[in-house]
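Q: My labmate handed me this sequence with no annotations at all. I'd like to see what the chain might look like in three dimensions before we decide whether it's worth expressing. Could you predict it?
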Amino acid sequence: MKQLIEARPDSASSGFSFKGIKDYLDCYRSGKLTPSQVAKNIIATLEDCDKSTPPLRAIVQWDREQIMLMAEASTARYRNKSTLSHLDGIPVCLKEEFKVVPYHHRVGTVYLGTEPETEDATVAKKLREAGAIIIGVSNMHELGTGTTGCNPNRYHKIPRNPYKPNHFTGGSSSGSAAAVAAGLCPVGIGTDGGGSVRIPASFCGVVGLKGTFGRISCHGSYPLSYSTVSAGPICTSVADAAIVYSILAEPDPLYPYGLKQPKATLSDMCAPDLKGLKLGVDWTFFKACDAEVLTICEKAVEYLKSLGASVVEVSLPEMEEVKIAHVICILSEMRDMLQPDFNKHFQEMNLETRATLALASQFTALDYITANRQRTRSMRFLREIFATVNCILTPAVASTAPRIHESDLLTGSNDTSFIVQSMRFMQLANLTGIPGLVVPVGYSTAGLPISLQVMGKWWDEAVLLRIGLKLEQFRNQTKKPSIYYDILA
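A: Here is what I predict for the chain of 489 residues:
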């Protein structure tokens, strides 16, 4: 862990770098700043960023008193040299899909969570036990039903991409990615049922990890789709994602899907090179993306080869079937969960959510069973592929973040072709439960972030993090987002 904290890419000498966990810990340990002083800076920033034009809308619920309580407790622990973990005093936010005391568990809607929450989700509880400062809950696509992050309802509004505020953040964990990229906190927690951690992390130029299905407890998160969703961190660096992962990843008696998991390790993560690793690429699938994305991602693959890894051509079979099976599974499960809401709160839902759930009602039991048979087939194919390679590489998203149109602010956005395109490289991991990590590797000519994705076999997050640690060194310069708050200044 100590090695990891030192492992952060130090680009400070060559310009901008995001402030990560190590920067906060250095300030606290040296006495330059206390968690209480940092908390005051965050409160001032939260007040400021929603007064800006346009408002950032990354954090949708926060409470000054709560933030100060956690910060003061952390300050006392630093004073007494009795800190709880590497996250002690580190500001974090959680997607509104998670229960976090005392906020409203609205899940991106106007009708859920009418009373303040009285019980924490497991991840919120673990973060508190680690001494983190929960700065609030973050914005999300309504009920997690889309990949833009566009949520025009009165409690949420549309979060802005810190790199280009007239572009979307991606979704559905939109606010968590925007908060991390804008410097409000170095750690955000999201959930990923169809790329919902990895898409916004990619669009906002930060690191996103979707753990293996069941690896991080989803107890206390709104159970929208039980078979496709995994929780995971969004951070400013791979090392930070590894630190958060190591604290959150373990069996939870309240969450049956992860009970039999092997112990989470970070073995070999800090190895000096990638010698001996075999990186699988299906080039036909890999190339199904915008030209700018492809050019940068191909160079990133070459860079990994230069560190001693070998690239092995693999074939990912039946990807069209995977795409359809994933949509049937996630939407059928969402529709089942949201059936009472659809009947009772239809008029209060965003137009896009109504359309998505109406579409979901057209799937039959036969469709759902056939989709699950495809899942079993795809898992078998992956087992064979992972017998020959350590991971599979793809671009993270086939395009960069799309523009926000004036009408989106009022009625929302419903661009089906964009949703399909944005999930292209995401769905395999959600359908089969394998882990996926997205790491920023460059920018488009318009200055929007581009990322590469690394997927590994079940429970082998360690190899993703090891490759990711090297991959983030490929981008020799980090561009500063146009909305960025330096909380430690």
